Structure prediction request, 175 residues.
Amino acid sequence: MAELYAIGQIVGATKFPKATLFCKWGIRTGSGWKVIEGHTEGQTQIDSPDFDEFTYWSHPIDVHYATKGIQGWPKIHFQVFHYDHYGRSELYSYGVCHLPTTPGTHTIECCTWRPVGSYREEFQQYFLGGGVQLQDPELIYSGCNRYKLQTQTMGNVHLELSVILRNFEKYRLEF
Prediction:
């Protein structure tokens, strides 16, 4: 079987309206992929930068997959949360990007978005917090019905990943 090994980190986030953030992440694959070793989901710590616009997480990613085909190539998805001074956490945004398909070290900037609600929901969110959330989290990494959503861009999640591919030529798997 061909193998994919991804190691690196979720470095942090930028360009969010407020900086006290944490992130839940996961890696989604097709049915032909098998996890040999590593974690495919996790959560970062909260960072509350005082003087910097960059929220640092430095959260490790270390996962090893085996596959017989490239269909269902791994995607990493994010849910970024804001932690306010009352101890509440509110979902800020969603994001998704594919793991790189070429070996080597990659710096990735994943743009995030949030669903936009009605005028009343947006007004309520501004004064009370919270906000519109997806009823079906499958929409984050499945592009089938995502085009129907009305969204607003939020900040960016920054990743540094090193990718190692093994036996892709041997099993004649090409991109």
The two ends are 16 Å apart (CA to CA).
